[in-house]
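lol forgot to send this yesterday, sorry. struct tokens for the thing we talked abt
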């Protein structure tokens, strides 16, 4: 009985970890380059919505998936451009992009489908059914990022842009372009997480379906010290917390049924405790949210 429950929790955590992993890895690329990316939630929402909307309109899940990733790239490119050349505070800009997603997507759903906040339910043929494939892809991304930062010129330039942009300038490399490229590449990964939400984990887009996963991914990124492997472990930890709260819903403790509202906040409480007790020990990239 207990082992069955443990197995169910682990399998559920595996599925739930996928969007957090892709968002965290996307944020990792951005933040290692010096761009504080609090707009991960917006990337997830726009990619999930566009992926589901295009699939519903065309009937082709692959077209929808590529459209969702492209939408995330556009959002990432705009976010990076505003942060770099608008010279505003990156946290404020990211918050603005999140608010834009919360407000603009319901307008689009109303205009396209005459429903506020969601797309039509997709058929079985219009969705993916391979969460394990997405999870395996996330693992491949993790190892690719390890190789990128350790052994490639682009990875070293991304790290330099986040730590000491002046070092790039002395070599004749435009650190702003390095940052923009990193943010855009990260948007591709985050877009995969959004597509997974609406076209694999779900069967269409529902209002604010990211449910704070972008912020949890950001916490996992900090918890992981801006490194791929520890970030992966942190994402899976938060996914386990989410899986446990799903298992505990409706359960009785000493013949008393715990209200679901208290159970549902477990992942967010775990996130807060991690940030309170651990994040202060981590050192962010030196040039993050700084203009040069």
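and heres what i got for the seq, position by position
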């Amino acid at each position: 009985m207990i082992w069955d429950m443990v197995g169910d929790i682990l399998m559920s955590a595996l599925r739930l970890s996928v969007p957090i992993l892709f968002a965290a890895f996307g944020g990792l690329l951005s933040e290692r380059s010096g761009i504080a990316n609090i707009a991960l939630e917006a990337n997830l929402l726009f990619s999930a919505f566009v992926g589901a909307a295009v699939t519903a309109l065309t009937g082709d899940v692959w077209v929808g998936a590529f459209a969702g990733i492209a939408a995330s790239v556009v959002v990432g490119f705009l976010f990076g451009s505003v942060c770099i050349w608008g010279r505003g505070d990156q946290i404020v800009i990211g918050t603005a992009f999140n608010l834009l997603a919360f407000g603009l997507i319901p307008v689009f759903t109303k205009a396209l489908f005459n429903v506020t906040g969601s797309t039509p339910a997709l058929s079985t043929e219009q969705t993916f059914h391979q969460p394990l494939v997405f999870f395996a892809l996330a693992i491949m991304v993790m190892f690719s990022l390890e190789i990128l930062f350790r052994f490639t010129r682009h990875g070293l330039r991304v790290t330099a842009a986040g730590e000491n942009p002046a070092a790039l300038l002395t070599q004749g490399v435009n650190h702003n372009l390095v940052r923009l490229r990193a943010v855009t590449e990260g948007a591709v990964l985050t877009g995969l997480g959004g597509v997974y939400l609406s076209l694999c984990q779900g069967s269409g887009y529902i209002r604010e379906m990211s449910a704070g996963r972008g912020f949890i991914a950001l916490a996992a990124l900090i918890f992981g010290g801006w490194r791929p492997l520890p970030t992966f472990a942190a994402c899976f930890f938060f996914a386990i917390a989410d899986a446990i709260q799903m298992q505990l819903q409706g359960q009785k403790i000493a013949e008393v049924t715990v209200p679901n509202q208290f159970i549902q906040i477990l992942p967010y409480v775990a996130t807060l405790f991690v940030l309170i007790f651990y994040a202060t020990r981590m050192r962010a990239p030196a040039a993050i949210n700084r203009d040069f």
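The mean pLDDT is 88. anyway ping me if u want another try
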